[in-house]
Specification:
There is one protein chain. This protein is an alpha/beta fold. It has eleven helices and 20 strands. It folds into two domains: 283 residues, Aminopeptidase; 129 residues, Roll (Aminopeptidase i, Domain 2), CATH 2.30.250.10. Helices cover 28% and strands 27% of the residues. Strands 1-2-3-13-4-14-18-16-17 form a nine-stranded mixed β-sheet, sandwiched between helices. Strands 11-12-20-19-15 form a five-stranded mixed β-sheet. The longest helix is centred in the C-terminal third of the chain and has 16 residues. It is globular and about 70 Å long. It starts with a helix and ends with a helix.
């Protein structure tokens, strides 16, 4: 297998992007830094917007969702929007508001399960914390990003001598009693809460009494890597769905002078249903698009005319065929790693693709010179969903669901293909260019 040097470089940049983004708030911050480096200007929802043709802009909502766009030189009612959507969140464990508690000589941190992670993959890993912390200021509070790079937490397995059936029955963890993470030995002169807050305070260089609230992920401190006989695979956390964010952002940053207005929309809360102010089920995407149209045309019906000329691509990872578990897959839709982007279809609209939009994606793949695959879920298994149907129904816009194939979706350590990431970027570049 020959992997072009440019494709290898893109995959290495993806790994760095993921490793620098252990929470949705870090992911948005990293997207923002890349946008600023390429001349994008921040817009604030509370302020008046003045947009120029060819202008490059971005908007952040709730710190964990971001929309970036290049204002096309063509009339919106004729060229519309070319939108690529993805999500910044990944399933896992989130810290509770009052997390630290001492028992049996140990301090443990209580967590909630966020979305649908494979919980067993969190055991015996070098875990730590990342997210945002609200700190008291003279004017109220300020939000600060926090990331502990050193292993701070652990979820040790119970020895097989006390769990004899684990290899036959699988590891089962009670979400309330068996998921609290080990943090340290209890100290006689400090409460569990004081021990924990002192760590945060020292990292942020603030007083513990000024720490008000937080939202924090548990993440794996092991960095991403290449693996395989020819290093043709990627292993990392959060490939679902930061790989799609990285591919779409890379495509946008290389787009020059488009006729259509090209948009990247990265949402939080997809893994828990998208129903939030920052989620795809909220008003964020419609609010931004309406304001773009309003800055361009005051003619009645311009918004709906622009949407009628638009296309939305929901980019989310796809289930690659696992040769150890052939019975888990639809026999005629076994997609393979490093064989190209996947067009995802579901008759019950768990994916937004239809025959017309699938044909459109095929045309883009052919124009980009990349292979493509088609996926349908086994009929006797429940099919997951994406932001595709949500955004398509809210905007009334033509939409397709695509993704790069991957193994171990929702594991703490996922795998995908080096070639596939390059293919996806090429496809999304073409989608912005037409």
């Amino acid at each position: 297998m020959t992997i072009p040097a440019e494709t290898r470089t893109l995959a290495a940049d993806l790994i760095n992007f993921i490793d620098d983004s252990p929470s949705p708030w870090h992911a948005v911050n990293n997207v923002e830094q890349r946008l600023l480096a390429q001349g994008f200007t921040q817009l604030r929802e509370s302020e008046r917007w003045s947009l120029n043709a060819g202008g490059r802009y971005y908007v952040i909502r709730s710190g964990s969702s971001i929309m970036a766009f290049i204002h096309g030189h063509g009339a919106l009612v004729e060229h519309g929007f070319s939108i690529i959507g993805a999500h910044t969140d990944s399933p896992g464990l989130r810290l509770k508001p009052k997390a630290a508690h001492a028992s049996d000589g140990m301090v443990r941190l209580g967590v909630e399960v966020y979305g649908g992670p494979i919980l067993a993959t969190f055991t015996d890993r070098d875990l730590s914390l990342a997210g945002r912390v609200n700190v008291r200021t003279a004017d109220g509070f300020a939000s600060r990003l926090l990331q502990f790079n050193n292993p701070l937490l652990r979820l040790p397995n119970l020895a097989i001598h006390m769990n004899r059936e684990v290899n036959e029955q699988g590891l089962k963890l009670n979400k309330q009693t068996e998921l609290p993470l080990l943090f340290g030995l209890a100290q006689k002169d400090l409460s569990a809460d004081q021990q924990f807050l002192s760590q945060i305070a020292a990292s942020l260089q603030v007083e513990a009494s000024d720490i008000l609230t937080w939202e924090m992920n548990i993440f794996d401190t092991q960095k991403g890597s290449f693996w395989g006989a020819e290093q043709e695979f990627i292993a990392d956390s959060q490939l679902d769905n930061l790989a799609s964010c990285h591919a779409a952002l890379t495509a946008l940053l290389t787009t020059e002078n488009p006729a259509a207005t090209c948009v990247c929309a990265f949402f939080d809360h997809e893994e828990v249903g998208s129903v939030s102010a920052a989620g795809a089920g909220g008003s964020f995407v419609a609010d931004v698009i309406q304001r773009i149209v309003a800055n361009t045309s005051s003619e009645a019906g311009s918004y709906h005319r622009a949407l009628a000329q638009s296309f939305f691509i929901s980019a989310d990872m796809a289930h690659a065929y696992h040769p150890n578990f052939p019975a888990a897959y639809e026999p005629c839709h076994r997609v393979l790693v490093n064989h190209g982007p996947v067009i995802k279809t579901n008759a019950n609209q768990r994916y937004s693709t239809n025959a017309d939009t699938a044909a459109r994606i095929i045309g883009l793949c052919e124009r980009a010179g990349v292979p493509f695959q088609q996926y349908a879920h086994r009929t006797d298994l429940g099919c997951g969903s994406t932001i595709g149907p949500i955004v398509a129904s809210n905007l009334g816009i033509a939409s397709a669901d695509i993704g790069s194939p991957m193994w171990a979706m929702h594991s703490l350590r996922e795998s995908a293909g080096v070639l596939d990431h390059g293919y996806m970027i090429a496809l999304l570049k073409t989608a912005f260019a037409v």
